[in-house]
C-alpha cells in the first residue's frame, strides 16, 4: 500500500514539475480570423496544440515590433491531436507577439475565442518525444517529431554520416520546409541534432546537397561544409550556406541567391567535385530536364548543358538529381549514372526514381540507351528522392530514399511523425543483355545490425531466403492481414501484393501489386521488415522493392510455398 502511495505521489510530483504552464495573458481577438497572443520567453518551449484536419493558420512572430519568424501550423479548433514545440531560446530572452491568421471557412458557431488552441497553448521546459506510435520503425531513420520528406545534403566526414532532411517542425504534414539534421556512425542508428537550416526572407528551405570543401575553394575555410539548397519563395532560387563546425550550424551566404532562372520548377541542386575537369559540377532539376553547371568556387556557376529532352519517363516533374561514376560489376569499366526522381510517373503510380546510364565529361551527359528506355531504381511504391552521400569512404556510393509516395504521404496513419527513410543501399552497376543497370545492395552496415536468429517473424527483422525456383511467400498476422510475395523464376519477376496488408483506406492509391524484373535468377532474397515497411532485395542488388504496409498488429508468420526446399534464416533487428 505504501509503495502504491509513494508511486502515486511520485507520478503526481513528476507531472506537476514538468507540467506545462498556462500563458499569463489572454489573446486579443481582432476579427473572425485574426488574433494576437503575447508570450514571454522565460521557458524553453511554447507548446502549440495541433489538430490535423484544420487548415493551416499563418503565424508571424514579432520581437521588438519586427517580424523575426513566420510559420504555418494547424492550430487546434475542436480537439488537440498532438503538440509541436516552438523553441523560445531563438528569441534572445525578449517577449514576443504571435500574430495569428486562421484560414479556411468555418460555421458561424465556432467563434475564434472558443477555439481549442487558447486553452491548450502552454509553456514548458521539456518537449516529450517518447515514441507512442506502433508504426514507428526501429532501424530506419525517422524524424523525432513532425513531417519528413526528401533526404538532403548527405555527407560523410571523420567517421560520421550526416543526414539532413526536409522537415516540418510544426506539424506532421508537409509545410515550413526546414533542414532537420541527424547523424549516425553506422548508417542505421541516428541521433537528431536539431534543425540546421531554417526558412528566411528568400523562402522555405527545399532540397539540396552538401560537400566537404577540402581545398577551401569557396573561401569559407579548409574542410568547411558547403550546402546548396533551393529557397522556395515567390520563385525557386538557389542559395548557399556554410558550416565550420562539421555541419552542426550553418551561416547563410550574404549574396544569396547565387543562381536564378525563369523556369518555375527549378530546384534540388546536387553538386560534386569532378577530378576529370578539376572543378565542381552541379545538377539542377528544371521542369522536365536536368541542367548541368560547373564552378571553381561553389558560388559562381557556369551553365554547361541540359539533359533529358525526349529521354526516359516524362509523366511528371523531374526532381532531386544525382550524378556519379560507378564501377560495372565484373569488369574494370566505369560508367556515369544520372539519378532522376520523378513525380508523378512512377511504374505503379505517383513518385519514383528513374536513372540513366551513360558518359559524362564534366560538360555533357550522354545516355547509352535509346531515348525510349526507362530504368527504375526500385520497383516498390515507396522509394523517392533517392540521392547519395557525398565524400563516402572507400569510394563507396551510398544512397538513401524517402520511403513514401506523394500520392498518400500526408495521409499515412501516423501522427507524432510522418515518414521514414529507406535502409542505406550501396550502388554499383551490372550488365544484362545490351544494357547496363543500377544495382542497389543493402549497405554492409545492415549485416552489422543483425541480432539473434529467431524462429518466427518479429516486428523488426531481416529474412534471408534461398530460392531455387518459383515461390510464394506470405507475411501474415492473426487477423489474416497479409503481404503476398511471388517469385516467378520463368518470367524472372518478383512481386509484392499489399492489397490486404492491413490499414489501406487512408488513400485509394495505397493498395497495389508491385512487380520487378529480377535480371536473371533470384538466388538469395533479403527482406527487411520494420513495423510499417517491407523492403525486398536480391542479395546482389539486381532487384530492389520498397513498400509501406500498416498491419493492425505486426505480422508474426511467414508462410513459404515452393516446390523446392527454401532455406530461411530470420534475424531480429533492434
Ligand atoms: C521532392 C520535392 C523536391 C523539393 C522538396 C520540397 O519530393 O518536391 O523537389 O525540393 O520535395 O519539400
Descriptive notes:
By secondary structure, this protein is mainly beta. The chain folds into three domains: 2-124, Jelly Rolls, CATH 2.60.120; 146-408 and 421-442, 5 Propeller (Tachylectin-2, Chain A), CATH 2.115.10.20; 449-573, Sandwich (Jelly Rolls), CATH 2.60.120.560. It is built from three helices and 42 strands. The protein has a six-stranded antiparallel sheet, with no helix packed on it. Strands 2-3-8-5-6 form a five-stranded antiparallel sheet, with no helix packed on it. Strands 13-12-11-10-29 form a five-stranded mixed sheet, with no helix packed on it. A hairpin with a 5-residue loop joins strand 34 and strand 35 (482-488). The longest helix has 17 residues, at 2-18. The model is unreliable at 1-17 (pLDDT under 50). It binds beta-D-fructofuranose. Residues 149-150, 166, 177, 206-207, 230, 267-268, 319-320, 385 line the site of beta-D-fructofuranose.
Amino acid at each position: 500500500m505504501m509503495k502504491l502511495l509513494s508511486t502515486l505521489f511520485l507520478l503526481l510530483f513528476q507531472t506537476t514539475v514538468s507540467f506545462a504552464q498556462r500563458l499569463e495573458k489572454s489573446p486579443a481577438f481582432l476579427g473572425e480570423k485574426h488574433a494576437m497572443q503575447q508570450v514571454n520567453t522565460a521557458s524553453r518551449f511554447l507548446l502549440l496544440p495541433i489538430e490535423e484536419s484544420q487548415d493551416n493558420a499563418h503565424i508571424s512572430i514579432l520581437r521588438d515590433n519586427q517580424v523575426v519568424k513566420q510559420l504555418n501550423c494547424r492550430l487546434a479548433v475542436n480537439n488537440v491531436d498532438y503538440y509541436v514545440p516552438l523553441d523560445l531560446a531563438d528569441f534572445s530572452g525578449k517577449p514576443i507577439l504571435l500574430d495569428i491568421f486562421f484560414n479556411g471557412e468555418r460555421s458561424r458557431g465556432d467563434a475564434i475565442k472558443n477555439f481549442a488552441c487558447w486553452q491548450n497553448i502552454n509553456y514548458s521546459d521539456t518537449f516529450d518525444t517518447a515514441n507512442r506510435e506502433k508504426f514507428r520503425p526501429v532501424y530506419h531513420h525517422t524524424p523525432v517529431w513532425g513531417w519528413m520528406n526528401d533526404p538532403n545534403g548527405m555527407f560523410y566526414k571523420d567517421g560520421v554520416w550526416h543526414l539532413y532532411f526536409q522537415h516540418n517542425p510544426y506539424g506532421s504534414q508537409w509545410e515550413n520546409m526546414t533542414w532537420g539534421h541527424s547523424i549516425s556512425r553506422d548508417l542505421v542508428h541516428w541521433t537528431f541534432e536539431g534543425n540546421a537550416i531554417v526558412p528566411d526572407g528568400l523562402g522555405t528551405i527545399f532540397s539540396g546537397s552538401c560537400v566537404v570543401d577540402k581545398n577551401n575553394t569557396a573561401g569559407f575555410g579548409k574542410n568547411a561544409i558547403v550546402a546548396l539548397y533551393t529557397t522556395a519563395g515567390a520563385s525557386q532560387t538557389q542559395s548557399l550556406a556554410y558550416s565550420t563546425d562539421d555541419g552542426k550550424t550553418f551561416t547563410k551566404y550574404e549574396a544569396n541567391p547565387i543562381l536564378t532562372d525563369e523556369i518555375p520548377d527549378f530546384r534540388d541542386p546536387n553538386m560534386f567535385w569532378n577530378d576529370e575537369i578539376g572543378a565542381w559540377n552541379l545538377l539542377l532539376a528544371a521542369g522536365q530536364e536536368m541542367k548541368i553547371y560547373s564552378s571553381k568556387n561553389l558560388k559562381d556557376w557556369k551553365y554547361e548543358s541540359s539533359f533529358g529532352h525526349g529521354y526516359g519517363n516524362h509523366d511528371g516533374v523531374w526532381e532531386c538529381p544525382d550524378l556519379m561514376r560507378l564501377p560495372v560489376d565484373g569488369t574494370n569499366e566505369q560508367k556515369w549514372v544520372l539519378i532522376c526522381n520523378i513525380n508523378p510517373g512512377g511504374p505503379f503510380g505517383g513518385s519514383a526514381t528513374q536513372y540513366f546510364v551513360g558518359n559524362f565529361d564534366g560538360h555533357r551527359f550522354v545516355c547509352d540507351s535509346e531515348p525510349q528506355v526507362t530504368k527504375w531504381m526500385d520497383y516498390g511504391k515507396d522509394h523517392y528522392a533517392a540521392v547519395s552521400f557525398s565524400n563516402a569512404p572507400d569510394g563507396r556510393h551510398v544512397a538513401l530514399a524517402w520511403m513514401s509516395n506523394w500520392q498518400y504521404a500526408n495521409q499515412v496513419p501516423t501522427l507524432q511523425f510522418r515518414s521514414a527513410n529507406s535502409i542505406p543501399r550501396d550502388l554499383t552497376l551490372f550488365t544484362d543483355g545490351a544494357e547496363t543497370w543500377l544495382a542497389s545492395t543493402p549497405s554492409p552496415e545492415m549485416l552489422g545490425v543483425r541480432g539473434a536468429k529467431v524462429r518466427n517473424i518479429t516486428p523488426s527483422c531481416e529474412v534471408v531466403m534461398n530460392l531455387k525456383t518459383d515461390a510464394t511467400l506470405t507475411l501474415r498476422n492473426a487477423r489474416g492481414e497479409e503481404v503476398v510475395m511471388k517469385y516467378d523464376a520463368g518470367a524472372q519477376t518478383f512481386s509484392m501484393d499489399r492489397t490486404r496488408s492491413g490499414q489501406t483506406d487512408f488513400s485509394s492509391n495505397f493498395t497495389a501489386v508491385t512487380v520487378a524484373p529480377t535480371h536473371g535468377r533470384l538466388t538469395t532474397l533479403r527482406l527487411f521488415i520494420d513495423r510499417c515497411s517491407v523492403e525486398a532485395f536480391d542479395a546482389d542488388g539486381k532487384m530492389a522493392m520498397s513498400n509501406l504496409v500498416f498491419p493492425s498488429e505486426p505480422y508474426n508468420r511467414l508462410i513459404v510455398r515452393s516446390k523446392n526446399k527454401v532455406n530461411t534464416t530470420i534475424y531480429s533487428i533492434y
